[in-house]
Amino acid sequence: MMLRRSLLGRGNRLTLGIPSLRNFSSCTRLYKNSEQIDEAELWAPNLTSQPYKAKKSSKEEFQWPDQSEEQAQRAHEIRVEKLMRLSAVFQGLLILLGVGAATTTYMKWPQIKSWWVTKDDYKVDDNTIERLVKSKTKKSMDEIAVISDANFGPEVSGLYLAGSNEIAGKNKAGYILPKRIPLFDHKVLRDVCLSDEPNGKENLAIDERGDLLKWSQDAISTILPDQNLVKVKLSNNVAYALNKKGEILVIPVKDPSSLTKHVEHKRSWVLPWKTYCSYDWKLDTKDSFKAKGENKIIQFDTGKHHLALVSNKGNAYSCATGIKSKPQDRSHSYGQFGVPTLSQFDEFPPCNKLYEIELLNRALDSNNSVYKRDILQVACGDYHTLARDAEGKLFGFGINKNGQLGLPISYDNEQIPFPKIISRFGSYFGRDSKFKCVDINCSTQTSFVTLETSDDNGKKDVFYFSFGDGLNGELGNGNYKNCQPEPAPIKSIDSPVKEWSCGGHHIWCKLADGQVLVWGFNERGQLGTGKRIKVNRPQPIPGLLKPGDQLQPDQLYRTKLFLQPQQSVAAGETSTCIYWKK
């Protein structure tokens, strides 16, 4: 009862308060309609001497303060300076955009050129041929090797040449597809060495009898017969040829007078009515070969101005090449000899004098005892050398400006005058995997290494790595870069490589199944792809043309070249040849 009375009392008080709310609303409306006063206008006389106006005036009515000539001149200079700075900013942006566009175009030029060349459809009919007359793709059609004068096809022994080492004229001399050279029809060769000279007339070959030949596309001649040669290399304008006795002959192919001084014709004791040619200029190994039974050279390679070899006792040696005391364009070594006393700070060594690479032939074991290494193979770039031993270890010495030694590029590693182990492959294999080097090859400034891995179960796999210069796609890993110190895998090779042939800046590989893969520089058509576009990863090339073939270009490019077991490949500076090997 008391609660009810309390609620009724509160309700009455709320009812009585309603009129007061109405009065408040009316007060609010009255305040809204009252006169508005700008407080800033009231206080303006105390704050500024200028009359205050609540409403902004227009620019025409604004009273601009008077300025002196110096102030006006200064204001003008400030405006001009701001405009010049703004103009410089825009110019800088335009320069950055231009440099970026030029860099992108340069780095992507192979793709751009490839798109431009192949953007039209290759359908050989009358209308298409007329349209190709004014098209860039007409060049590819015209430069396909003409074989109408070839009497034989790939089933007959001979020699095919792709690219050219002759000076390029307006038409960019060179075969973009392998062309058969009629001079070698029905010939079988032991070895071929393509010249790095621009005249293209110093190519060398060893015929099936072991005679040394000099040849070009138009002529062939014998320059040194009866030597039973098996391998020939060029270095510093001199040919170095290995015979079956295990001797290396020094042959000045560009100096006929010096060559004839060392040639002597003798009469055979067995057949007195016959004469034979004797040659006496050879690398002197008597003072260098000191091990018991060490009397033969089993393998060698050459660089720009140096030679490295392996003896039958597994020892490595090196020497400077040429017939002059010092190369004209190089006054010091780059460490490519592997001898610390023949570094870049020492006098260049005399030509054709052998030096033992002692730090490569010998090493220390865990007990600091000296033991002998068994060197199996050496490979030379222009100014660097690789070597591998029987244990599968890889060594390098020489110049490392592009990372061709597989070492980090630094001031200390720029030139290495002594053998240094290369072992930066562990990140690509499992912890339990064991790997060893089984093959090495070098181009001018790039190195290629074949590694064989085996696990605890005896399973073996083969991997291919490259490092060094790859500006023209030599690395084969899909990149164009001039420095690759970290060994990078070549992932596009699915079958074991049976034969490597490294030119100046291009590579040919013959796989175990006979297929040919190529990559690298291709300005002269040395890759044999039918175009002059450089390639940055291994790719197949069209098959060899046969007499009477009437293939359209698209049909030809769908074919793949497979070599026969007796066919071999030799790469030069800007050309490559396929020949039948004995």
Automatic annotation (TrEMBL):
An example GO CC term for this entry is: mitochondrial inner membrane
Mention one GO biological process in which this protein takes part, according to its record: mitochondrial respiratory chain complex III assembly
Look up and give the organism this protein is from: Zygosaccharomyces rouxii
Source taxon at top rank = Eukaryota
> What is the name listed in the Swiss-Prot or TrEMBL entry for this protein?
Protein FMP25, mitochondrial
Please give the coiled-coil regions recorded for this protein: none
Q: Where are the transmembrane segments?
A: none
Q: Name one Pfam family in it.
A: RCC1
RCC repeat spans: 392-453, 462-513, 514-582
| InterPro entries assigned | MitoProcess-Associated (IPR053245), RCC1/BLIP-II (IPR009091), Reg_chr_condens (IPR000408)
SUPFAM superfamilies in the record: RCC1/BLIP-II
